[in-house]
Amino acid sequence: MKTLVLGGARSGKTRHSLGLAEGMGLETIYLATGWAGDAEMTERIARHRAERGAHWTTIEEQIDLPRVLVKESRADRVMLVDCLTLWLSNVMFAELDVEAMSDALVSAMPRMAGPVIFVSNEVGLGIVPENALSRRFRDAQGRLNQAVAGAAERVVFVAAGLPLVLKDSEGRGQASV
C-alpha cells in the first residue's frame, strides 16, 4: 500500500507516519531526502534520527527517489520517504525538469514492491508567495501532491497532530477520522 501523509510545517505528519510504519511489524527504512547544508539542518537531522531510534535503517537520496524506491522496496519492509517537499526543492535547485521527475516518481509507484509512506507538506493553504520562485515551487508542490495522492491507496491530512483520512484503500474520497 502506498500512503501519502500531508500537513503543514510541524503538524505532526512525520510522527504520525513513523507510527504507521512501526505498526506494520515490518523492517523499517527511512528514506531521507534532506541534507545537512547548515548547522540548523544538521541539528534537525540529528533530532529526527534520535526520534526514530536505532531500529530504523536510513537511506539518503536527494534526487533519484524513484530509482531508490523501486530498488529498495520489498514486501517485508516499509519505507518512509521524508519528505517530498525537500525532494522537490532539491530537484528545482538542481535545475532538473520538475514535471518529468514528478512523473517518474508517480510512474514508479506501482513498481514499488512493498508499503511506502510519503510525507509531504501542504503548501497551498497560506498566502500567495511574494516572489516568482516561491510561487513556482508552491504550484509544483501542489501538482506533485495531487499526482501522488491520485496514485496512492491512502491519503491522510495531519493538522495539530490529528490525522484525517482523505482517501482509503478503496479510493473513496470521503473524509473520516
Task: Describe, in plain words, how this protein is organized in 3D.
The protein has helices at residues 13-22, 39-52, 65-72, 84-93, 98-108, 132-151, and strands spanning 2-7, 27-32, 56-60, 77-82, 116-121, 154-159, 162-167. Strands 3-2-4-5-1-6-7 form a seven-stranded mixed beta sheet, with helices on both faces. Helix 2 (39-52) links the parallel strand 2 (27-32) and strand 3. The chain contains six helices and seven strands; from the N terminus they run E-H-E-H-E-H-E-H-H-E-H-E-E. It has a single domain (2-167), classed as Rossmann fold (3-Layer(aba) Sandwich). The chain has 177 residues and is α/β, with parallel strands linked by helices. Helix 3 packs parallel to helix 5 and helix 4 (84-93) crosses helix 6. The two termini are 19 Å apart. The model has no long low-confidence stretch (mean pLDDT 92).
Helix and strand layout, with pairings?
Layout: E1 2-7, H1 13-22, E2 27-32, H2 39-52, E3 56-60, H3 65-72, E4 77-82, H4 84-93, H5 98-108, E5 116-121, H6 132-151, E6 154-159, E7 162-167
Parallel strand pairs: 1-5, 1-6, 2-3, 2-4, 4-5
Antiparallel strand pairs: 6-7
Which characteristics define this entry?
6 helices, 177 residues, Rossmann fold, seven-stranded mixed sheet, single chain
